[in-house]
Amino acid sequence: MKNVFVIFGFISSILAVILSITPLYKLALFPVIIAFLCGLGLVFLSRKKQIKTKAIQYIFLLSIIALSFTIYKSIFQKAEVGNTEELEKRDESSEEEAIKELEDIEIDI
């Protein structure tokens, strides 16, 4: 049981760190929660049996790092929208060009 918690905790905490660095940082919350739950399970198991706590510390450390990256990105990252007028002009001009090209095409029946 201990090994399952350790492996699952490490995998989820490393996945959380990777996701928190990428643009998919909002999805990193799920592995962080799973890693915390595995860490808590290991804490309760370590109280019953004498288990080394290094793995527990690493799982919590990686989870805290991932959580801090996620919170930092969600606070300080702004969603910027570019100039939409230029895009609308390009769409109109490309539509006009497409209509002209279609009018120029002669279909032989």
Listing every helix as H and every strand as E from the N terminus to the C terminus, the arrangement reads: HHHH
Report the major sheet: none
Please tell me what the overall shape is.
elongated
Oligomeric form? single chain
Termini, distance in Å? 75 Å
Structural class: mainly alpha
Q: How does this model look, in words?
A:
The protein is an all-alpha fold and 109 residues long. The chain has a domain at 2-77. It has helices at residues 2-21, 29-48, 54-76, 84-104. Helix 1 packs antiparallel against helix 2 (29-48).
Summarize the structure.
This protein has 109 residues and is mainly α. The protein has four helices and no strands.
Question: How is the secondary structure organized here?
Answer:
Blueprint: H1 2-21, H2 29-48, H3 54-76, H4 84-104
Helix pairs in contact: 1-2, 1-3, 2-3
Protein name: FUSC family protein
Keywords: Membrane, Transmembrane, Transmembrane helix
Transmembrane segments: 5-22, 28-46, 58-76
Keywords, please?
mainly alpha; 4 helices
